[in-house]
Amino acid sequence: MLVAPSLLSANFANLQADFEILNSSNADYLHVDVMDGVFVPNISIGFPVIKAIQRLARKPLDVHMMIVEPQKYISQVRDCGAEIMNVHFEACTHLNRVVHEIKEAGMKAGVTLNPATPVFMLEDIISELDLVLIMSVNPGFGGQAFIENSLNKVSRLRRLIEASGSHALIEVDGGVNEMTGAALSKAGADILVAGSYVFKAPDPMKAIDTLKSL
Ligand SMILES: O=C(CO)[C@@H](O)[C@H](O)COP(=O)(O)O
C-alpha cells in the first residue's frame, strides 16, 4: 500500500517539525490540498506556500485541487514541482482537455470524484488517467467520518480499471485509519491519504507504517 499523509492536518505553526518526521518516514507522497472557498466551503493554501513546501519536502507532491476552473493553474502547479495534479470531475467542463494539458505539462493526471459522483462517469476517460481519487468524505475539512459507500465505489472502480486495461491507481481520501484502510485495501485501493490518523497520532511514523502494511 502507498501512503500519502495529508498536510491539512499538519501543524502549520511548526511545519519544519512535521517535515522532519515526514521526510524520514516511509510515506510515499505528500498530499497537498488546495481549496478556494468556492468549490469547497474552506480556504487552505496557495502557490507561494506550496513552493515553500516543495523546498522542505523530500517526498513527491500529490496536489489535490479543490477549486473551480483548475485548468487555469496547471503551469503553476507544475512550477511547484508536483508529481501528481488531481482535479475534480465536478469542476471540469472539458475534462479530456484538462487531463491532456496536465500530462503535457509533465505531471501525472488524477481525477477526483466527490462522494455522490458515480464511478461510471469515468468510463470514457479512465484509459487516459494515471490516478483516480475517491473522496470518502465531502471535501473541505479534515477529521470527518468515513463514508461507508466509498468501499463499493473502490470495488466498482477496480472492476472498471481492469475491464478497460487502464493503469490508473486508486487513491482514497477522508476518514482513513487502520480499520477503514484495511477495508479499502481489500476493496482495491492503491494509495491511502490520511490526515488526522497520521498527524494526531502519538507516533506519526508508526501510523504511516501501519497503513503501509495493510
Ligand atoms: O481533502 C481532504 C479534505 O477535503 C483530506 O485530504 C483531509 O485532509 C483528510 O483528512 P482526514 O479525514 O484524514 O483527517
Task: List its salient traits.
214 residues; alpha/beta; TIM Barrel; 8-stranded parallel beta sheet; 8 strands; globular; binds 5-O-phosphono-D-xylulose
Using the coordinates above, name the CATH class: Alpha Beta
Specify Rg, calculated over alpha carbons: 16 Å
Query: Runs with pLDDT <50, length 5+?
Result: none
The name CATH uses for the topology is TIM Barrel
Question: Number of domains in the coordinates?
Answer: 1
Per DSSP E runs of 2 or more residues, the count of β-strands stands at: 8
CATH H-level superfamily: Aldolase class I
Note the run of SSEs as H and E: EHEHEHEHEEHEHEHH
Shape: globular
Largest beta-sheet details: 8 strands, parallel
- The chain-level mean pLDDT equals 97
Strand content: 15-25%
Bound heterogens, unique: 5-O-phosphono-D-xylulose
Function: Catalyzes the reversible epimerization of D-ribulose 5-phosphate to D-xylulose 5-phosphate.
Family: Belongs to the ribulose-phosphate 3-epimerase family.
Pathway: Carbohydrate degradation
Cofactor: Mn(2+); a divalent metal cation; Fe(2+); Zn(2+)
Which secondary structure elements does this structure contain, and how are they paired or packed?
Blueprint (H helix, E strand, L loop, with lengths): L1 E4 L9 H9 L6 E6 L11 H10 L4 E6 L7 H6 L2 E7 L6 H10 L3 E6 L17 E5 L14 H15 L4 E5 L4 H10 L3 E4 L1 H4 L4 H9 L2
Parallel strand pairs: 1-8, 2-3, 3-4, 4-5, 5-6, 6-7, 7-8
Bound molecules: 5-O-phosphono-D-xylulose.
InterPro entries: Aldolase_TIM, Ribul_P_3_epim, Ribul_P_3_epim-like, RibuloseP-bd_barrel
Pfam family, one: Ribul_P_3_epim
Family: Belongs to the ribulose-phosphate 3-epimerase family.
